[in-house]
Design brief:
- The complex is a heterodimer of chains A (about 180) and B (about 475).
- Chain A has about 180 residues and is an alpha+beta fold.
- Chain A has two domains: about 5-50 and about 125-175, no CATH class; about 55-120, no CATH class.
- Chain A has helices at about 15-25, 45-50, 55-80, 95-120, 135-140, 155-165; strands spanning about 5-10, 35, 145-150, 170-175.
- A four-stranded antiparallel beta sheet of chain A has the order 2-3-1-4.
- In chain A, helix 3 runs antiparallel to helix 4 (about 95-120).
- Chain A is elongated.
- Chain A starts with a strand and ends with a strand.
- The model of chain A has no long low-confidence stretch (mean pLDDT about 85).
- With about 475 residues, chain B is mainly alpha-helical.
- Chain B has one domain.
- Helices cover about 65% and strands about 0% of the residues of chain B.
- Chain B contains 15 helices and no strands.
- The longest helix of chain B has about 35 residues, at about 175-210.
- Chain B is globular.
- Classes of the chains: A alpha+beta (about 180), B mainly alpha (about 475).
- At the A-B interface, helix 1, strand 2, helix 2, helix 3 and helix 4 of A face helix 1, helix 5, helix 7 and helix 15 of B.
Chain lengths: ~180, ~475
């Protein structure tokens, strides 16, 4: 190709149009492509053939770290580093350490979940070819786009364009990289 | 049963097939509005000219907030003795106000987290504002314990940093648990709110860009983190949102449980009761919904949001207020019953004293506001009368403040030894400081409705009929 191009973008006006078109692109075997939607479309993950998100695994790790941090912090500060008997109570017990560890479990899970989500999504990324598309504003508002990237092994300007047209895409244009 | 038929065919006791009842879906966005109508409506509030009423309210809110600033400045300059606390009542308005504000925050988390898990889609139009309310309420709440420590520059002692003698915090104390509960609550509420805002900030970024306001576009764009509506992103985002809802649910329940431990773990009659955690949580949600109604009903009227906050939404909020208010009423009755049934003379005295002692006026304000007020919500006519609902919501707020006052002050003023009994009255500094927090809250809330989308546009669009990929709900 002559000019470096990021890919082809096609516009869809309604949710069902996008949904059926996404299933067609998936069945055509594309890998590097995406849908741009103003809201999470229920069922689109399946139509795109996306696997289940792995965010929960990251959250679980965060939660375990949080709980262990709480327990070990309370054990180390109270029973190891500076032993101080208050009211004749034991220096450490998982009972009184539980509320704080519980809160830290939640706190660390939240950090891991959001951090994991941003990491998996590659955000923050303030520059992206899709954001340069002149009608991208509508993609945040009321329209839907399908973007197929040129780096996809099956990408072929004519064939890909034909596929998007057949799937009902309008205003098919090239995105500059 | 079969005998009714008098023929050979035996009617099976179990039905061959059970068809789910087809209930009409509640309409969450009235008048079949389009996606772009929602965007225009919500963004229009931010993009339009600042209305005069906003400036008036903002100036008024700043004036009221100055009372808190003045009260705190005077306290720092003089000492914590400027508050009316004295033996035996060493916890008074400050802790009352702390619990009051924290409780208000809980409705925001309930709406954003618990109702999300329960798939109550009506939450979408009120969750953003309710979460904002949570954050601002936590800010107001934090003022009181932080300044109650007296020398506020030592407030860092609350966190696990060893002091100059290398002594660590006592993790056996419920007060230390509370530090972790409230700071986790504040942090997670902000994060949850921000994650919800991400897609909407991207909308504003692109709208300000195309209308030529590059500065605001850059500001919103910075915080939108480059969100581009990619479905690969939505997939992780939705999962993260669900997990945040999942962890915020035990969080919100634990925060007010731990707040109640501040009292329940002590040995004071009237505090030392096992009913406190559930009773406090129900009360918190009750007061929070009171505040949500207080805030959302004027907002709905001013910004003409009747299509987004429909009568169905108001009905739902009133019913939750009714349910939690009734739980609170049950808890009041149960406390009395156990005080009698437990046969502990001190406990029995504490409760008789609450209802008929020196603070009986506060007790009966509490009962009338919290037990009687919500009962009006049984009636449809009441729920449909917006101004009346608003007035009732004010009573709920007042009643829940008095609940904390009754619990904290009556138990302390009359403890075990009659020789150390006392009567507490607030000083003018305390009154100023508390009065001012309504200004602090209002300043923050007014800034929120001016600069951030007050409703989650993406979530609202997702509950409209045209968002269905099968066109099932589409109108023809």
């Amino acid at each position: 190709m002559a000019a470096p191009s990021y890919g082809l973008i096609a516009t869809f006006d309604t949710t069902p149009d996008l949904y059926h078109a996404a299933a067609k692109v998936r069945d055509a075997g594309y890998r590097n492509w995406d849908c741009i939607t103003p809201f999470p479309v229920h069922g689109l993950d399946k139509a795109m053939g996306l696997p289940r998100s792995i965010v929960p695994r990251i959250s679980l790790v965060g939660g375990i770290i949080g709980f262990c941090t709480g327990m070990s912090m309370i054990w180390w500060t109270g029973a190891v580093d500076y032993q101080l008997i208050v009211g004749g109570k034991p220096l450490f017990s998982p009972m009184f350490a539980f509320p704080v560890s519980y809160e830290l479990t939640i706190l660390f899970t939240a950090f891991a979940t959001i951090g994991g989500m941003l990491f998996l999504n590659g955000l923050p990324m303030h520059y992206h070819p899709v954001l340069k598309y002149e009608h991208i504003r509508r993609g945040m508002d009321d329209q839907f786009f399908i973007v197929i990237e040129t780096r996809d092994p099956r990408f072929n300007l004519a064939n890909t364009k034909a596929l998007l047209e057949k799937a009902g895409g309008k205003n098919i244009s090239e995105l500059e990289a | 049963m079969a005998h009714a038929h008098h023929d050979d065919t035996v009617t099976p006791a179990i039905l061959q097939e059970v068809k789910p009842a087809s209930l009409p879906r509640a309409i969450l966005v009235a008048n079949n509005r389009s996606f772009s109508w929602i965007t225009e409506k919500i963004c229009g509030i931010i993009e339009g000219k600042t209305p005069t009423w906003w400036w008036v309210c903002f100036a008024l809110a700043c004036f009221v907030a100055s009372f808190t600033v003045a009260g705190i400045a005077y306290l720092i300059a003089t000492g914590v003795g400027v508050w009316g606390h004295a033996n035996p009542v060493n916890w008074a308005w400050d802790i009352v106000n702390f619990v009051f504000w924290i409780g208000i925050g809980h409705a925001g988390t309930l709406i954003s987290a618990i109702l999300c898990l329960l798939r109550q889609k009506w939450r979408t139009s009120i969750n953003r504002a309710a979460e904002a309310m949570t954050i601002f309420a936590v800010v107001c709440a934090a003022i009181f314990p932080v300044f109650h420590v007296g020398r506020v520059w030592y407030a860092w002692y609350l966190f696990p940093i060893p002091n100059s003698n290398a002594i660590w915090q006592i993790f056996r104390s419920p007060l230390e648990w509370d530090v972790f509960a409230v700071s986790t609550y504040g942090t997670v509420s902000v994060l949850f709110w921000y994650v919800g805002l991400l897609p909407d900030l991207a909308v504003l970024r692109d709208r300000f860009y195309s209308s030529g306001n590059k500065l605001r576009s850059a500001l919103y764009g910075f915080f939108a983190l480059g969100w581009r509506g990619s479905n690969r992103h939505w997939s992780n985002y939705e999962m993260a949102y669900l997990i945040l809802a999942g962890i915020s649910t035990p969080l919100v329940l634990s925060v007010h449980t731990i707040v109640s431990f501040d009292f329940a773990v002590s040995l004071l009659p009237g505090w030392h009761t096992t009913i406190f955690p559930p009773y406090f949580v129900a009360g918190a949600i009750f007061s929070g919904f009171g505040m949500v109604l207080t805030l959302m009903l004027p907002l709905r009227a001013v910004y003409k949001l009747e299509d987004l906050i429909t009568q169905y939404h108001i009905d739902c909020m009133c019913k939750i207020t009714l349910a939690t208010g009734t739980i609170v009423g049950y808890a009041y009755a149960m406390e009395f019953f156990i005080a009698w049934y437990g046969a502990n003379p001190y406990e029995g005295f504490a409760f008789i004293n609450r209802a008929f002692g020196h603070y009986a006026w506060a007790y009966w304000i509490m009962i009338s506001c919290n037990v009687i007020t919500p009962q009006f919500f049984w009636f449809k006519a009441v729920r449909e009368n917006t101004s009346f609902v608003w007035i009732l919501s004010i009573f709920v707020n007042v009643g829940m403040w008095f609940e904390r006052f009754v619990i904290i002050v009556t138990s302390l003023a009359r403890d075990f030894l009659p020789s150390s009994w006392g009567y507490y009255s607030p000083s003018i500094v305390e009154i100023f400081t508390f009065f001012g927090t309504f200004g602090v809250f209002s300043v923050l809330f007014l800034l929120f409705i001016r600069f951030l989308p007050i409703m989650p546009m993406a979530e609202l669009k997702a509950v409209t009929p045209q968002a269905d990929v099968h066109g099932g709900g589409a109108h023809h």
